[in-house]
Inverse folding.
């Protein structure tokens, strides 16, 4: 198939950036979206134009490195799918595709489609852990956890930290990301000791990092490639409120 | 180069405990005076960084990723082994040790493997304490599954994303220390050289990938946890960024590189679909618990799989290895798939594929159970191939996955350069010539949580380490060299892209140093690689400048190292005149086509010492002693 690509090019953080049009021919439907960009880059390099910078690594949908706003949707048209797992069979001959970086104040652009998501790391550093040192932990089976409970914790823990929730949200809110980590531990006995302090501290840093507020639009849930449920946001809100009440 | 493995004396089950007692300690108040540089933030790097920071060391951790959570450990799917014997099926530390030595085809170091099996139980406890949501059964206790090369169920898992959950556990422990100011984290920072002062590893040179700034970092010890080198094949299951650069630069500075030819070709990957292919996707080995592998009995049988009756199918692993069946170890399963395809019985358009069929287990257990066990893997398969594995058998083919070879280390995980320690996939010690499934995660965390935190203290306490700073001339010199190399890459201004060279090298490596190797092919590769390298340095086209985020430049530097490294790999494969584990020399096989070891001449680790680019490295040997597991022909029949 033949495609017209509109790609955001921006040399560095200070550059204003603009959409640039590229024509690409003979795209195979079996290619992944990123392989399509590889082919474009190979072509650009041969022609003497610097390749389009985009973040990617595992290409198996688990590392959370790839991003891309494709036709206005984080990770593109297919639900529950990261950009690296999106294949060109989702598109058709003659399509125009608009490719942009994640846009959020908390995620400054590094170059072209690459953004800096270290704000997420800062949120985790504020409490996204259980404070246990390495050492002689008790036998793992001394902490029975019902399968149902373990499954809920796992549903929350599945977050890959890609930032699609922030990119899709009109407020650039990171509530789904924060809620997923808070809920993973809130649903496990090991996480109870720091449960409320964790919610409070992580939310404080989330605000510091210039993520916006949540106005319950659920765009995050729709964009999430790992189907993290917005129900976890309710859990975060409950724990956060309780943290304020109990001090 | 002297290879002293420093294996403690005494019976194998007492070695580690005794060694822990014998090692010197660093007083808690003095630990903060020692600065440890850790390169890599995967399971090994992150767990080591977190644990050493908890102990009080001044830890500086470097990753080329945008966040430590992105390291490729995250992509491990199936699970992590531990000798917990929760299933009461006869598992023990000794059995895990035995299985690992046997699985590695008797080419690993016994003492290291025993320690690995010992600490495996602590890993599970530690991870649960951190909140890793392992799978549970309905009683609330931990669940297990089976993996290849074992007849007990000892694999712990978190759906099909065990690596993710374990890495996020280590990342959270690391994040806690970063937040507390105990670890200084450097994201998007790539190590480009190792700096030695008076023969000791004293620091690294890095390039900030966002600004291009080349910087020195001095410390008291350097720990490399930089993963494997499967991307030398271009197509592998590794992430796009995985590379050999850090380990290779250490080798060039004098660290011995052991057994580079030991590469693992994973049997269950999605077959190649076309020239545009950028990487190969792994389907977890755990699928072999319930999937049956087969090809048509007839050559060139182009019928749909559903139209081929059972009598005309060859479930070749079940036929050839009845006691292990579909759970035969990876090297054997891969080679059998290759054989079937070489015989013209491969499936799919290219004929390079075999079926992994869930029909029978769906019939036996119901679709729901299969979905619960493997749902995310089935979805991933469908996304990539556009076929529904609940209805049509998966098509799979072997692909480069893991590298058992790596920098040589002693029992303390220290390389031949004093002060340079190597953890996880980057070292060579535990898996011999073939790694068993679910053992990589185990080793990464064992090294990081439970070995290096002890042994590094012993290094500090038993050496007099002078304080130095980045002003030392050794750093200035190394920085200048790195800058020179960057400029050289940018100034070739040729006509071919880096990827085109990487693909060319990958093809040579796969054809001649892949699943089956022979003298003729390896000698050919040894001729071809230097000429590809020469053309690279005369004709590569790297656009842009250093002082910016420049993916083309990053990639070119890594491929330049692969172009030197591949040569050492082929040389190692050529010199090892035997077949063992993942290293299969067609000249050395039994009548039934099984790997034929030569214990008399090759019961050693081959360790290479750098002599210069294009010059043959000097070969050293560490003789492997098998005092506990008797050398035997590995049988899975």
């Amino acid at each position: 198939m033949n495609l017209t690509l509109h790609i955001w090019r921006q040399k560095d953080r200070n550059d204003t950036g603009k959409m640039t049009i590229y024509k690409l021919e003979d795209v195979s439907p079996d290619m992944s979206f990123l392989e399509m960009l590889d082919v474009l880059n190979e072509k650009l390099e041969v022609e003497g134009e610097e390749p389009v910078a985009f973040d990617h690594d595992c290409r198996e949908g688990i590392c959370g490195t790839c991003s891309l706003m494709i036709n206005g949707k984080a990770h593109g048209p297919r639900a529950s799918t990261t950009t690296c797992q999106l294949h060109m069979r989702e598109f058709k001959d003659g399509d125009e595709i608009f490719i942009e970086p994640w846009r959020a104040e908390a995620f400054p652009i590094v170059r072209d489609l690459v953004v800096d998501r270290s704000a997420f790391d800062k949120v985790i550093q504020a409490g996204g852990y259980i404070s246990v040192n390495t050492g002689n932990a008790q036998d793992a089976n001394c902490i029975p956890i019902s399968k149902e409970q373990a499954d809920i914790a796992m549903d929350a823990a599945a977050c890959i930290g890609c930032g699609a929730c922030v990119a899709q949200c009109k407020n650039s809110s990171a509530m789904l990301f924060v809620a997923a980590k808070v809920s993973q531990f809130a649903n496990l006995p090991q996480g109870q000791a720091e449960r409320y302090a964790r919610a409070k501290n992580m939310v404080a840093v989330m605000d510091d990092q210039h993520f916006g507020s949540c106005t319950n639009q659920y765009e995050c849930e729709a964009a999430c490639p790992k189907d993290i449920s917005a129900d976890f946001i309710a859990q975060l809100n409950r724990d956060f409120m309780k943290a304020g009440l109990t001090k | 180069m002297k290879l002293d493995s420093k294996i403690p004396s005494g019976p194998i089950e007492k070695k580690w405990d005794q060694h822990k007692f014998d090692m010197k300690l660093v007083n808690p108040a003095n630990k903060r005076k020692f600065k440890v540089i850790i390169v890599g933030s995967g399971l090994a790097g992150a767990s080591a960084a977190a644990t050493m920071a908890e102990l009080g060391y001044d830890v500086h951790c470097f990753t080329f990723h945008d966040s430590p959570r992105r390291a490729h450990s995250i992509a491990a799917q199936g699970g992590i082994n531990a000798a917990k014997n929760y299933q009461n099926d006869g598992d023990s530390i000794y059995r895990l040790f035995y299985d690992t030595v046997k699985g590695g085809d008797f080419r690993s170091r016994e003492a290291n493997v025993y320690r690995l099996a010992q600490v495996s139980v602590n890993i599970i406890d530690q991870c649960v304490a951190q909140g890793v949501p392992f799978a549970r059964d309905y009683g609330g206790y931990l669940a297990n599954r089976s993996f290849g090369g074992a007849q007990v169920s000892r694999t712990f898992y978190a759906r099909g994303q065990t690596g993710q959950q374990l890495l996020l556990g280590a990342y959270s422990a690391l994040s806690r220390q970063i937040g507390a100011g105990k670890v200084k984290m450097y994201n998007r920072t790539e190590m480009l050289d190792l700096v030695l002062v008076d023969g000791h590893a004293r620091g690294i040179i890095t390039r900030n990938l966002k600004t291009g700034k080349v910087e020195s970092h001095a410390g008291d010890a350097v720990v490399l946890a930089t993963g494997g080198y499967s991307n030398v094949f271009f197509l592998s299951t590794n992430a796009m960024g995985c590379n050999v650069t850090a380990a290779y630069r250490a080798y060039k500075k004098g660290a011995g590189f052991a057994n580079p030819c030991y590469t693992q070709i994973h049997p269950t990957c999605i077959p190649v679909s076309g020239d545009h292919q950028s990487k190969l996707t792994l389907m977890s080995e755990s699928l072999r618990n319930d999937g049956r592998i087969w090809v048509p009995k007839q050559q060139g049988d182009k019928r749909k799989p559903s139209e081929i009756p059972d009598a005309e199918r060859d479930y070749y692993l079940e036929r050839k290895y009845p006691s292990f069946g579909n759970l035969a170890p990876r090297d054997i399963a891969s080679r059998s798939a290759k054989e079937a395809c070489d015989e013209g019985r491969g499936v799919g358009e290219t004929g390079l594929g075999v079926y992994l069929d869930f029909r029978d287990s769906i019939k036996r257990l119901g679709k729901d159970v299969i979905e619960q066990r493997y749902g995310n893997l089935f979805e991933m398969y469908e996304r990539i191939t556009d076929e529904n594995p609940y209805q049509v058998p998966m098509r799979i083919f072997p692909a480069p996955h893991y590298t058992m070879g790596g920098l040589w280390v002693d029992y303390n995980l220290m390389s031949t350069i004093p002060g340079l320690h190597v953890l996880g996939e980057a070292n060579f010690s535990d898996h011999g010539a073939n790694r068993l499934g679910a053992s990589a995660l185990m080793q990464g965390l064992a090294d990081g949580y439970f070995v290096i935190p002890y042994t590094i203290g012993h290094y500090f306490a038993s050496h007099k380490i002078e304080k130095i700073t980045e002003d030392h001339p050794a750093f200035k010199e190394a920085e200048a060299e790195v800058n020179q190399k960057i400029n050289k890459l940018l100034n070739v201004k040729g006509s071919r892209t880096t990827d085109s060279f990487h693909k060319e090298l990958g093809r040579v490596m796969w054809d001649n140093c892949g699943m089956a190797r022979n003298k003729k092919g390896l000698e050919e590769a040894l001729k071809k690689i230097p000429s590809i390298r020469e053309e690279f340095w005369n004709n590569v086209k790297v656009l842009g400048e250093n002082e910016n985020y420049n993916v083309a430049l990053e990639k070119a530097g890594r491929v330049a190292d692969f172009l030197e490294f591949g040569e050492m790999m082929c040389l190692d494969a050529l010199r090892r005149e035997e077949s063992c584990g993942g290293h299969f020399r067609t000249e050395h096989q039994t009548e039934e086509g099984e790997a034929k070891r030569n214990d008399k001449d090759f019961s050693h680790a081959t360790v290479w010492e750098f002599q210069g680019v294009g010059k043959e490295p000097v070969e050293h040997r560490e003789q492997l002693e098998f005092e506990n597991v008797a050398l035997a022909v590995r049988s899975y029949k």
